[in-house]
Amino acid sequence: MRPACLGLLVSAILAAVTARSEPIQILSLSKSGDLAWVNTNFAAGTYRVEFKHELTDNWQTVPGLESVVGTSSATEVPMNLQGIDHRFFRVLWLDAPLADSYNEFSDVQGKTGWQYGYALPASAGPTSPIWFNLFPSYSVDRWVVDENLFWTFLGRDTMHPNGTVTSGGKQAVEQWPVLRWTASSEGSIRVAVSIKDLNANGGNGVILHVFHQGAEVKTETLVNGGESNFELNVVVAADDHLDFALDPNESDDLSDVTQYRVLIYPQ
């Protein structure tokens, strides 16, 4: 990445605007006028770059940058602005997700379509109405069953199951944390999922199961320290639900702290 060298643009103020998304981090604006930013979401996106001379001016689109396709990491584009004193810039994300498990995480069940629960897979399958149980308690920054009895929790970006092979005096019961999203309308959606086993030095990995209306549509197995990004195309009706359930793998919950994120886009 080119270093930030603003030249005539030394007083530039760089901003980022998104819809239902965390801000895009702008990295630099080079002397030759190349703007660099980071897409802080793991999915690719389309952006528009805008500028204005004075704070009270209206935003204008930079010619040629009406629709820039960015990757899931860094994006750098030539702006051909050398010697032109445009002092304010922003990057506008044009295809924000319908739903974002990270930014929309809440201590309120059902807010923006997200629910936080756990499954008892030994006693019921995913098509059973008793398979999904809402977490009974919210503790500081995560949903829990009972922190004294089980490891099971679901937070903003991490989750952990409980197993019959366990530790720390927890009960030997298999429980899967389940993140549920409910569609508000019918249509085709693209589901982007990121998952990573944060405990590389112990346990036997984890398995993520994705269900649409109780039917499994994806199984992703991670070894210790493994990670995966994948996408699914799903057609949903209003009130359909997608479940993202974390299996401790052979009911062994040792070292199973797992990072996750789910983004849902219209097709």
Description:
The protein is mainly β and 267 residues long. It has 2 domains: 7-93, no CATH class; 99-266, Jelly Rolls (Sandwich), CATH 2.60.120. Helices cover 0% and strands 45% of the residues. It contains no helices and 22 strands. The strands form 4 sheets. Strands 9, 12, 13, 14, 15, 17, 20 and 22 form an 8-stranded antiparallel beta sheet that branches. Strands 11-10-16-21-18-19 form a 6-stranded antiparallel beta sheet, with no helix packed on it. Strands 1, 4, 5, 6 and 8 form a 5-stranded mixed beta sheet that branches. The radius of gyration is 22 Å and the shape is elongated.
Q: Secondary structure elements and their pairing?
A:
Blueprint (H helix, E strand, L loop, with lengths): L12 E5 L7 E5 L4 E5 L6 E8 L7 E2 L6 E3 L3 E5 L9 E6 L5 E2 L13 E6 L12 E3 L2 E3 L2 E3 L8 E3 L2 E3 L15 E7 L4 E11 L8 E7 L2 E8 L4 E10 L4 E7 L10 E9 L1
How would a textbook summarize the main sheet? 8 strands, antiparallel
Q: What is the helix/strand order? A: EEEEEEEEEEEEEEEEEEEEEE
How many structural units, i.e. domains?
2
The CATH architecture of the largest domain comes to Sandwich
Quaternary status of these chains?
Answer: single chain
Strand composition percent: over 45%
Mean pLDDT: 84
Task: Provide the CATH topology of the largest domain.
Answer: Jelly Rolls
Broad CATH class of the largest domain: Mainly Beta
Individual helix count: 0
Distance between the termini: 32 Å
Enumerate the spans where pLDDT stays under 50 for 5 or more consecutive residues.
1-23
Percent helix: under 10%
Q: Tally of extended strands?
A: 22
Spatial extent as radius of gyration? 22 Å
> Pairing-aware structural class of the strands and helices?
mainly beta
Label the overall shape. Answer: elongated
